[in-house]
Amino acid sequence: MSEVLASFLSRSSAWGAALTIAAFGLGTLLQRRTGKAWCSPLLLGSLLVMAILAVSGLPYTDFKASASPVSYLLLPATVSLAIPLYEKRNLLRENAAAILAGILAGVLVSLGSIAALSLAMDLERAQAVTLLPKSVTTAIGMDVASALGGMPSLAGAVIVLTGIMGSLTAPWVCETLRITDPIAKGVGIGTASHAIGTAKALELGETEGAMSGLAIAVAGVLTAALAPVFAGLLN
Amino acid sequence: MKWVFQFGRILTVCFLGETLAALLPLPIPASVYGLVLMLAALKLGVIRLEQVQDAGRFLVAILPVLFLPAAVGVMDLHAELTAMLLPCLLAVVPVTVLVMGAAGLVTQWVRRTQKGGAGHE
Fold first, then answer.
1. What is the pTM (predicted TM-score) of this model?
2. ipTM of this complex prediction, to 2 decimal places
């Protein structure tokens, strides 16, 4: 029975995308019911799909293939982050120095603390460079990790977890550190937690979302440029 | 049809981004080239805002859903993750908070300094 189902599903082009949306929808419902910030639809939905796959024994690769129409939209959606940014272009121009300084500070803290962590914990070089680009968008981060001799798939997983962590902690971090300026909030969220954090920033406000989207691109490029320098410090 | 053409324009920019990523020997992905190209096209008036705005806003709004399949992929890497659980945990939890705080506080501080401490937001 389960083999019949598995072979049917591996040929179905709809169930993966449908399950993705259903799981996200259920996560949204739970968040609304509980009102808890940590009930992120992305986190709850992912855990739900993981549980369904684990219980049914369906391989992740089948789900991934069937959900590929959803993942396909990632590229046009990331490119579309230019649109809210363009709408806020005056803010960007007037605050270019502050925004760039903030993103650079974030990138240096990220690379520096991962390098320090690696030295303190005596990690192997391959492990350390895998963690190095963990705050930037998956595509850049995985490329950087593999170019430096790390493990790109593990880098991808750590990057996704970082994004979820950023989106969960963003309101708390901003409140605790008294980051009240919407531009600063967006820069912080986007620099620390790329596009997944940006989705949260967009919920906080248009300015936050636009600045967070900008930070994805700038932090990504700065990390690609500076990661080899920090990798050189490791041994 | 309006939505289809808007989506078509966005996809065209994506394709140009992919082309740049393939041609230039830098570790920069198509999405970042695409984002910069889209911003430049809007700024130069090659594309007008209303020619991409509705489809673009829709795509940005559904962004969190689009990460779900990749997030589920973490389950296939549980062996690698448990092998270096503590470093991964430290990298994901405290470092993310530190980076967010540093980037946010520096931005806020520079903005306030530039204004010469004249009031607040």
1. 0.86
2. 0.89
